[in-house]
Here is the input.
Amino acid sequence: MMKTKTMVASLFRRTFRCNPVAAIAINSQTNLPRESLQHFSSKSLTTGRLQFSGRVFCSESGGERSSGCWNCGEKSAFLFCDSCRSIQPVDDSVDYFQIFGLEKKYEIDPRSLEGKYKDWQKKLHPDLVHNKSQKERDYAAEQSAKVTEACRTLTKRLSRAMYIMKLNGINVNEEETITDPTLLMEIMELREGIAEAEDSKALNQIRSQVQEKLKQWSDSFVEAFESQRFYEAVKCIQRMTYYERACEEIVKKL
Amino acid sequence: MMMLRHVAKKAFLGLQNPMASPLGLGRRLYHENVIDHFENPRNVGSFNRDDPNVGTGLVGSPSCGDLMSLQIKVDDSGQIIDTRFKTFGCGSAIASSSVASEWIKGKTIEDVLTIKNAQIAKHLRLPPVKLHCSMLAEDAIKSAVNNYKEKQAKANGGVKA
Here is the structure.
């Protein structure tokens, strides 16, 4: 009985260091099946034998994988475990901002993405795991793809805006038709101007005008979003979509 | 099983665009109606917006940034005698608006309101991802008719007063 008590105490101490919430849960759990613990000798008291998966007890928010590394049990394995160097499976609750260690806001420095992106790919890229298990190669393919998608989404202003709206539960890509005559007339005239532009000088002129507008509406979006005026924010995104399409058209013509 | 798949593939290619390259095997191809409307679009252009007999429908799709303008010229009996359209968007959007501009010619403004996007989509064999293009065309028709009616109401209101 004393052995059991010391076992429980050491288990509690160990888990408490790693994961306070789980430890408290375990403590309450072990009150019940006390008899079963007597069968375990203190030698075999490793987290391997007594597998209290953190995921079962913890109700954690955010992307921290509470169950730790699948390979070595290291608790803080975010995408990649630094202690045993194994790639972790994709966790859908991890969002793109977390991958790059950024706050969930629209204004970010795109240059900070490039460096972090390369760092992640040095660890996660499928080409680096040829001699590992099929399971880990699959994880590599999925994680690497997710990081690439994250970088792509966050780099461009428009996709970043749409993503941040999505994180707040607002889906911008509704199929409702736009009928706002002022906006549509403006875009119509813009597109006609592009179609009629004679030379690259004229096109570049239009392009700089459009990019001005993009910046302006991007700023309006930030304002609307931060003041929680989501309807307005959606309108800003719609405008930005049209301006982006116009830019693409110009580039095609050039 | 292999034979059946092979035959089906051949039939698929035969029915679809005969101009498709052999490398189009398995890829989604545009239906010949779409290609026809894209390469020979009918009724491209514009009318004078201020003309009292002209109704202008201007609609946009937020998801893909498509833009569609459909104009109708209506006579005194309410029949659409001519149409013009201008669309900035993908091949399916252009074809949808071209089809719409064809179909509404000769019909009355009340009749054309019954044209459904499903009919346009079926005619062009649009894949699911392009169904919103036909929806946009249907909305463009309604928008043009509404615009015409508003103009008529204003004009009549002016005369009465």
Remarks:
- Residues 24 and 64 of chain B are 25 Å apart (CA to CA).
- DSSP finds five helices and three strands in chain B.
- The first strand of chain B starts at residue 54 and ends at 61.
- Residues 7-24 of chain B have pLDDT under 50 and may be disordered.
